[in-house]
Design a protein that fits this description.
By secondary structure, the protein is an alpha/beta fold. Helix 4 crosses helix 8, helix 7 crosses helix 8 and helix 12 packs antiparallel against helix 13. GO terms for molecular function: kinase activity.
Length: 514
């Protein structure tokens, strides 16, 4: 199937010929869809806490956190390109010399552009763009409106200007306080000081693209003194890259290897599921996971931090019970059928059913230990607002086992009427708000790669230099990659979910500092 040149290319990528062959077989076989039994809902797979319960869990975490190794893990490799999609289209389609800008902006397809230009001074980066333009064009403020807007956008996006198109999303100015702008990266640091701090130190790990690592380090040097002074916390920051050997080969629409114009195989990053390797290399008692762009301006941070403490406190509460059961079960003599040993088994089985929401409740010691000795995560989920993305569902696997999982829409066969009906009934979705326990009752780190479901990936249609290709995505970090963890869903308020998918999202109140 492969030329000598291709085989060498595979080796250079850290892959084996067998592994790439298997990937191509998956394109031919297809990946089975998830089998949704029902959507999780309030008090049916999703815990809803009263204010008293929330305060209890937050206090529990506060009391314990200085005894723990804490880490905030932030996937941050995404470029900002998609944030500015409609602005790129503006540069391609608007002719400032021959078109009236007001008439152009009145078109229905340009409504996002109109919002952007009507609110241009509310963006944290506006003054940076204007400074650059005024240095290049002293009469910039006197440009006709259409030309003014065109040059503003060009200066923002292009390499000759601020080059936001090729900037990591984490380093785009999101918020402005007085004369200072703060990026999503900076806000992640500030926020970490409020909940991911133990003994005055906040550990953060960012997964970034290799070519962007230096930019993050330079930005940290620029803001370190300010963020240290504002928080009273010392920051310990580490970085990693998505590993080349987690890339997958691209295929033609006929499921053959896709070759570029030089006859080379084309490899693609296999989605955020590849970050399981990165997560597996960090070592902490508790790891908070959230995406780089899900931040708020600083006047909302304490609200966000409280919700993180609630999730972490719930995790500690569950772990305490799990570790207690595991210790007793390991200590019990296998032949011991005393009333005390029987009671531990029964209580552990009840706990698995009641608090871990596992439907196929085990009754034997080995089965119970197999469930309890797994990584655990508490996932904040928010009420459905119609935002795209995965959500919590009860799933039946190929062996008939039932478990609650985060499932992406691409994993569900929406051509199946019954499955689509169940998806349409979903009440909550996944904002990527996870608190994870990665160590066992002895304090030893789990090998997370042992708890992934390799069948939970998906195939997507992409393009390469204008040609259609098929791409293979690995099981997502918070769905298939964590499929065999113990998972508890907790309802959190919508204010915890504030992603910046397009630049206009920065106009939302939580991104406008008061």
């Amino acid at each position: 199937m492969f030329t000598e040149k291709n085989i060498q290319q595979i080796k250079n990528h850290g892959l084996s010929e067998a592994k790439v062959t298997r990937q191509l077989e998956i394109f031919k076989e297809g990946i089975p869809f998830a089998n949704v039994v029902e959507p999780a809902s309030a008090d049916n797979g999703i815990a809803v806490f009263s204010e008293t319960e929330q305060r209890h869990f937050a206090s529990l975490f506060e009391a314990e956190k200085d005894k723990l190794d804490l880490l905030k893990f932030v996937p941050a490799s995404g470029a900002a390109t998609r944030m500015f999609k409609f602005l790129h289209q503006f540069l391609e389609s608007y002719d400032f010399e021959n078109e009236d800008i007001d008439a152009f902006l009145q078109k229905e397809e340009n409504k996002n552009l109109k919002i952007f230009f009507d609110s241009i001074d509310q963006f944290a980066f506006s003054s940076l763009v204007k400074e650059k333009l005024e240095a290049k064009f002293p009469d910039f403020e006197n440009f006709e409106k259409g030309k003014h807007y065109y040059f503003f956008v060009k200066e923002m996006l292009k390499e000759t200007g601020l080059n936001f198109s090729n900037t990591p999303k984490g380093l785009v100015p999101f918020h402005k306080y007085g004369e200072n702008y703060v990026t999503a990266f900076g806000e992640q640091l500030y926020e970490a000081a409020f909940y991911a701090t133990s003994k005055g130190i906040a550990n953060l790990h960012f997964t970034v693209s290799a070519e962007h690592e230096e930019k993050f380090k330079i930005r940290y040097e620029e803001i370190q003194e300010t963020v240290d002074n504002n928080t009273g916390v010392k920051f310990n920051i580490s970085y990693s890259f998505q590993k080349k050997e987690t890339d997958t080969v691209a295929a033609t629409l006929e499921n053959n290897p896709f070759l570029d114009e030089n006859g080379d195989l084309v490899f693609r990053p296999s989605g955020h599921g590849a970050l399981l390797e990165n997560l597996n290399e960090v070592d902490a008692d508790i790891v908070f996971i959230k995406n780089i762009d899900n931040v708020v301006s600083q006047n909302y941070v304490e609200t966000i931090a409280f919700q993180k403490k609630v999730l972490a406190g719930k995790l500690l509460s569950l772990q305490k019970k799990i570790f207690g059961f595991v210790e007793k079960l390991h200590a019990a003599n296998p032949s011991d059928l005393s009333a005390g040993a029987e009671e531990v088994l029964k209580n552990a089985s009840d706990f698995i059913s009641r608090e871990l929401f596992i439907k196929n409740t085990p009754i034997y010691k080995e089965e119970i230990l197999k469930i309890l000795e797994r990584p655990i995560r508490v996932c904040g989920v928010v009420e459905n607002t119609g935002a795209p993305g995965g959500g919590p569902f009860l799933i039946k696997d190929k062996n008939g086992n039932l478990s609650y999982q985060i499932v992406e829409m691409s994993q569900i066969d929406t051509n199946n009427t019954r499955q689509k009906t169940l998806v349409d009934r979903a009440t909550h979705f996944n904002p990527v708000d996870l608190v994870c326990g990665l160590r066992n009752y002895k304090g030893e780190k789990y090998d997370l790669l042992q708890f992934s479901d390799p069948d939970a990936g998906f195939i997507s249609n992409k393009s390469y230099h204008g040609k259609p290709i098929k791409a293979l995505e690995m099981p997502g970090l918070w769905n298939g990659a964590m499929a065999n963890w113990n998972t508890v869903f907790v309802e959190v308020p919508l204010i915890t979910f504030n992603p910046v998918k397009t630049v206009n999202d920065l106009l939302n109140p939580v991104h406008q500092p008061q």
